[in-house]
Amino acid sequence: MTFTTRHALIDPIAMNRIDTAAEKSGISIASLMERAGQAVAASALKHYPQAIRYVALCGIGKNGGDGFVAARALLESSADVAVYVFGDVAKLKGVAKQAFDALEISSEPLDHYRPQAGDVVIDAIFGAGLSRDVPDGVDAVIDRVETAGIPVIAIDLPSGLCGRRGVPLGRAFHSQVTVTFMARKPGHVLMPGRTLCGSVEVFDIGIPHRILREYCGLIVENHPAQWMDAFSKRDEDTHKFKRGHLTVFSGPSHATGAARMAAIAGFRAGAGIVTIAAPHEAIPVLSTTLTAVMVSAMDSEEQLLAWRDDKRHGTYVLGPGFGDVEKARGFVSLLKDKALVLDADGITAFRDRPQQLFDLFASDAPRILTPHEGEFGRLFPEIAADSNLSKVEKAQAAAALSNAVIVYKGADTVIAAPDGRAAVNANAPSYLATAGSGDVLAGIAGGFLAQHVPAFEAAAAAVWLHGKIARELGPGMTAEDLAAAVRPFQP
Predict the structure, then answer these.
(1) I need a labelling partner for 94 at 20 to 30 A (CA). Which of 169, 301, 397, 415 fits?
(2) pTM greater than 0.85
(3) Domain for residue 490, yes or no?
(4) Does residue 491 have a pLDDT over 80?
(5) What residue ranges carry the coiled-coil annotation (predicted)?
(6) What pLDDT, on the 0 to 100 scale, is given for residue 102?
(7) Which stretches does DSSP call E strand in 376-432?
(8) Closest Cα partner for 80 from 45, 47, 113, 35?
């Protein structure tokens, strides 16, 4: 994946290592804190110039130091500023103490703060430096601020929000603006953290990018910059077989809609040929509802063997509307060395025997699994039950266990590869949660796989395109609208 600070997601532990490395390289931590605090003050003045009073709620760590600098900068701009501190100011040390000592106003204990009309809160209590539930005193202040409807600008992360998992540690501020530095953290984009952070602004405070690149890890926000190079340019002499033959399996005659949407999406995503393989009794329904998509009867494993052994048939989507779980298991066993998107009923078929699926996936064939929350929990019960893991870490563990690319669906869909790469998708609107949209996603991913796009890049691109199309269509769109609007990428 290409490293850019715009798309990198750096967890709090890695960010601490980056700070340490920056200091060892000779960069003054005091200068970094000064730039950070000044950036927060600038953001506060930009977003809330009408504020009657800016209230800095500060801890006694580095996040609090950023808050003290911001308070001083706001005072220097002639704003009315109040400072409240959580903890014993006598325990302040290092650059945070220097920032506190530079204030020209006195502070009060945090529990003395009572919101007033016209206040804007600058939350500098914990940032990413919290690993336990918020203390009662902070919980009470959060409650008072929310009850009074006071806008909040959070420094780094809303206090109480886990920067790694994106979940509240008991309770967290709900900020309108979050100001962070150099790069975002997973907690900024994972749900519900994305909602709690409001609008996230990232400021470059001067840490060299070579240091960020060394410690950044393998997690990014999903974006074309990460995978567009995997899509080859169209050759002038290309033909349909060069663009791949995608086979989508259908269920019985009363349940062909899911396969049809997946097939159409795969075709529009750029596959050269798409065939729906269906039970013989479903052929009349499919033949009267499809034109460019071909139809082939397939009732038995013997018929699939003959189809599979034709080298032109290299990529498959199995699951949408399939229905027969025993048949699904048999078909997957025959496709264990083929490019495969396993979705819906294809995943459900292994809910009681996940190890059988993982054993089938022992080879390095390109494979994508697309579970939603419930399917993920049934296929990976121990991973799903570990509350200490973030959604990203769960997807990474599942990918390593299954030897497949995982698309862990939801408002914050995570795409993870067995080698540890992961991308969090943030462009999907809430109205994408509609019947059939997952079938379309499976078809897009299959269409990309058919064109020999590597599995991780195919999955990440499919998820991003899926969200992009939904945004363009707007509220009220249906899965049929999605499938009809799919278009291939043009590098």
Answers:
(1) 169
(2) yes
(3) no
(4) no
(5) none
(6) 97
(7) 405-408, 414-416, 422-424
(8) 45
Q: Is 93 annotated as a binding residue?
A: no
Q: Is 206 annotated as a binding residue?
A: no
Q: Which of 190, 217, 244 is the last residue of a domain?
A: 217
258 has binding-site annotation: yes
* pLDDT at res. 180: 98
CA separation, residue 277 to residues 250, 287, 365, 479 (Å): 6, 12, 21, 21
d(CA 253, CA 241): 29
| Segment 67-75 mean pLDDT | 98
Is 118 annotated as ligand-binding? no
Q: What are the Cα distances from residue 61, in Å, to 76, 96, 120, 124, 398?
A: 23, 6, 21, 9, 36
Q: What is the largest CA-CA distance in the chain?
A: 83
Categorize the per-residue pLDDT at 235 as very low, low, confident or very high, splitting at 50, 70 and 90.
low
Q: Per the structure block, which two tokens stand in for 431?
A: 């109205």
287: three-class secondary structure by DSSP? helix
- What's the mean pLDDT in 90-107? 96
pLDDT score of 3: 62
| Domain shared by 307 and 198, yes or no | no
Supply the range of the domain harboring residue 453: 224-485
Q: Is 204 annotated as a binding residue?
A: no
470 annotated among ligand-binding-site residues:
no
**C-beta separation of 63 from 127 below 8 A:** yes
Are both 162 and 240 inside the same structural domain?
no
Residues 205 and 276 in one domain: no
Report the first-to-last Cα separation within the chain, whole angstroms: 16
